């Protein structure tokens, strides 16, 4: 597992990561925390919409779509279990 | 059995929420995350004795229904499905205001047995407001299908409130749920809900805030909870309290100083 912290928006499809911190503020932050996006939460990128935004993530057992502008402000470390799943990226 | 309860709202107080109460009727609120089968539980408990409308002044749908259990009349109020009670949306605000100001005799929180983790956030938030909570662990059949085993006994112990496994779709566990709710509402079961404790500096600030606001708020409001919301910078709760008091002719309990908060 790498310790590089990247924005959630850069997590390739099919890969998973662990939330480190959120830089988003205000009500959106409150809402994301309520959805379970706290430090240490595992998050998996499920699929991306045809336009590339939003992206669906599996957060604690629920599939939730996040806009890139919000995912940009969620910082994660990518888990080292990707194998060859990320062919769908880009 | 006499079921009137000092800690609960007056009939006038419920009218402020657009509810008409008959004598000796218990008010039970039904809360839960979206997609937990909350409406299924609601329908299973109330059958056809339902009434739908809007919350006063809000375009948020409300359903209420009645049923009788062990000779006690119960009014069940379905709250909007929310992940949280921190009032970032109209739905959450409605749910929060009813729990804090409506002071139901008990609250059922419906949780999804297949993803308890994300559901327990709301349970903890409700338990911060009121100790009279029963957790309805629904969708047990779905959990079993996915080989998820929920240890109801440990969950009850950890949370400090009764947890009842149900499959609302098939009507399983509902009698036990009704028993547990009635016992909690009438004080037969005394719960000891697990309280969230915050960092010492937050706790200290909350305690200071609590002692400052106490003289201005009616005794039945959960002062610690209000103090914590104020620390978060959420002033909407003060407005909600004042609105409620003015609507429900409970002004007697409003002290002069309260006007300070209204500004």
Quick structural summary:
The complex is a heterodimer of chains A (90) and B (263). By secondary structure, chain A is α+β, with helices and mostly antiparallel strands. Chain A contains two helices and six strands; from the N terminus they run ββαβββαβ.
List the helices and strands and how they pair.
The complex is a heterodimer of chains A (90) and B (263).
Chain A: E1 5-7, E2 16-22, H1 26-34, E3 42-48, E4 55-59, E5 62-66, H2 68-71, E6 74-78
Antiparallel strand pairs in A: 1-6, 2-3, 2-6, 3-4, 4-5
Chain B: H1 11-15, E1 26-32, H2 38-46, E2 50-54, E3 61-69, E4 72-78, H3 90-102, E5 106-112, H4 116-129, E6 133-138, H5 140-145, H6 152-159, E7 163-165, H7 174-186, H8 200-213, H9 223-231, H10 236-247, H11 259-262
Parallel strand pairs in B: 1-4, 1-5, 5-6, 6-7
Antiparallel strand pairs in B: 2-3, 3-4
Helix pairs in contact in B: 8-9
Describe the structure.
The complex is a heterodimer of chains A (90) and B (263). With 90 residues, chain A is α+β, with helices and mostly antiparallel strands. Chain A has a single domain (5-83), classed as Roll (SH3 type barrels), CATH 2.30.30. Helices cover 14% and strands 36% of the residues of chain A. Chain A is built from 2 helices and 6 strands; from the N terminus they run ββαβββαβ. Chain A has a 6-stranded antiparallel sheet. In chain A, a hairpin with a 6-residue loop joins strand 3 and strand 4 (55-59). Chain A is globular. The two termini of chain A are 22 Å apart. By secondary structure, chain B is an alpha/beta fold. Chain B folds into 2 domains: 11-186, P-loop containing nucleotide triphosphate hydrolases (Rossmann fold, 3-Layer(aba) Sandwich), CATH 3.40.50; 200-262, no CATH class. In chain B, 41% of the residues lie in helices and 17% in strands. Chain B has helices at residues 11-15, 38-46, 90-102, 116-129, 140-145, 152-159, 174-186, 200-213, 223-231, 236-247, 259-262, and strands at residues 26-32, 50-54, 61-69, 72-78, 106-112, 133-138, 163-165. In chain B, helix 8 crosses helix 9 (223-231). The relative contact order of chain B is 0.14. Mean pLDDT of chain B is 85; it is low at 1-6 and 251-263. The chains are: A alpha+beta (90), B alpha/beta (263). Chain A binds chain B through residues 27, 30-31, 34-36, 59-62, and chain B through 83-84, 86, 88, 114-115, 117-118, 121.
């Amino acid at each position: 597992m790498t310790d590089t912290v990247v924005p959630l928006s850069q997590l390739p499809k099919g890969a998973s990561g662990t939330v480190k911190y959120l830089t988003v503020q205000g009500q959106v932050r409150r809402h994301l925390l309520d959805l379970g996006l706290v430090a240490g939460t595992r998050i998996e990128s499920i699929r991306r919409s045809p336009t590339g935004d939003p992206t669906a993530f599996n957060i604690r057992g629920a599939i939730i779509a996040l806009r890139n502008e919000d995912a940009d402000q969620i910082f994660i470390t990518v888990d080292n279990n990707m194998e060859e799943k990320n062919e769908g990226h880009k | 059995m006499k079921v009137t309860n000092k800690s609960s709202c007056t009939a006038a107080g419920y009218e402020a929420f657009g509810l008409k109460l008959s004598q000796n009727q218990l008010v039970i609120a039904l809360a839960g995350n979206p997609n937990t089968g909350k409406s299924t539980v609601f329908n299973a408990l109330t059958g056809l004795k339902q009434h739908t409308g809007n919350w006063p002044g809000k375009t948020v749908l409300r359903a209420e229904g009645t049923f009788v259990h062990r000779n006690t009349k119960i009014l069940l109020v379905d709250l909007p499905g929310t992940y949280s009670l921190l009032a970032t949306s109209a739905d959450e605000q409605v749910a929060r205001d009813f729990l804090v100001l409506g002071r139901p005799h008990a609250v059922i929180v419906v949780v999804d047995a297949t993803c308890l983790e994300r559901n327990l956030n709301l349970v903890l938030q409700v338990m911060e407001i009121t100790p009279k909570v029963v957790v309805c662990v629904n969708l047990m059949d779905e959990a079993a299908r996915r080989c998820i085993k929920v240890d109801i006994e440990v969950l009850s112990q950890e949370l400090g409130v009764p947890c009842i496994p149900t499959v609302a779709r098939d009507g399983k566990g509902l009698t036990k749920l009704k028993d547990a709710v009635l016992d909690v509402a009438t004080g037969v079961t005394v719960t000891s809900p697990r309280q969230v404790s915050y960092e010492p500096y937050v706790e200290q600030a909350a305690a200071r805030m609590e002692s400052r606001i106490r003289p201005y708020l009616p005794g039945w409001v959960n002062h610690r909870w209000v103090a914590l919301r104020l620390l978060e910078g959420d002033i909407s709760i003060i407005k909600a309290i004042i609105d409620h008091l003015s609507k429900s002719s409970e002004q007697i309990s409003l002290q002069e100083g309260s006007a300070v908060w209204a500004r």
